[in-house]
Design a protein that fits this description.
alpha+beta; 10% strand; two-stranded antiparallel ribbon; 7 helices; 4-stranded antiparallel sheet; 6 strands
Length: 203
């Protein structure tokens, strides 16, 4: 289906193309292989198609009588009519007579109605789990709090070959007291001074 652009709009059939107007708009489409109802019923190649259509029509009429006259409104739901029609059509296709299909349909509808009544009769009881009080957590003692707060200070490992001796800015050698006790005393003159970088540059 395509729209007519204009500026001239036409209606009719030209060379197998139909020009027509719909809701104020002009369209055109191909004529196609149209077959009327009389031709479809008389065409021998469509006999099986028409037989299936007739059987489906019979099933729809049977379901219509039971659905609107015997089923209560609470049982009727969207899609149930089509489901019942398909069931009856299947029974007829399997070779059952109309009376047998009618009996099966009535029995099935009675089951649906009984099931709906049992659902309405049984009250819905909600099972709620008992609400338990929150489990009390034991209070922390002061010792435990201190243990949590205090963290061990990391120990920095020092190599054995490193010396604690230091050279001051004035060039004098500084020996710590611990080293003076443990180390062997060295006889050094008082005037012994380690030259610094600035002194070397001056010289």
């Amino acid at each position: 289906m395509a729209k007519q652009v204009g500026p001239v709009f036409i209606t009719g059939t030209i060379d197998g193309i139909i020009f027509y107007k719909l809701n104020g708009q002009y369209y055109l489409r191909s004529k196609g292989d149209y077959k009327s109802a009389k031709r479809m019923r008389k065409d021998p190649s469509l006999q099986r198609t028409m037989a299936n259509a007739d059987r489906f029509g019979v099933a729809s009429k049977m379901v219509k009588r039971v659905y609107y006259r015997q089923l209560p409104g609470t049982v009727r739901k969207p899609g149930l009519f089509a489901r019942l029609t398909g069931m009856v059509n299947k029974w007829l296709y399997q070779g059952k007579t109309k009376e047998e299909a009618q009996e099966l349909l009535l029995a099935h509808c009675q089951k649906l109605a009984a099931k709906q009544t049992t659902i309405e009769a049984t009250p819905s009881v909600r099972t709620t789990a008992p609400v338990l009080p929150p489990h009390p957590t034991p209070a922390l003692t002061t010792t435990e709090k201190k243990k949590e707060i205090t963290k061990p200070t990391p120990r920095v490992k020092q190599a054995r070959y490193l010396s604690n001796w230091k050279v001051k800015r004035n060039g004098r050698l500084y020996i710590p007291k611990q080293c003076q006790k443990n180390c062997v005393p060295m006889i050094m003159p008082r005037s012994f001074v380690i030259p610094t970088k600035t002194q070397n540059r001056r010289e």
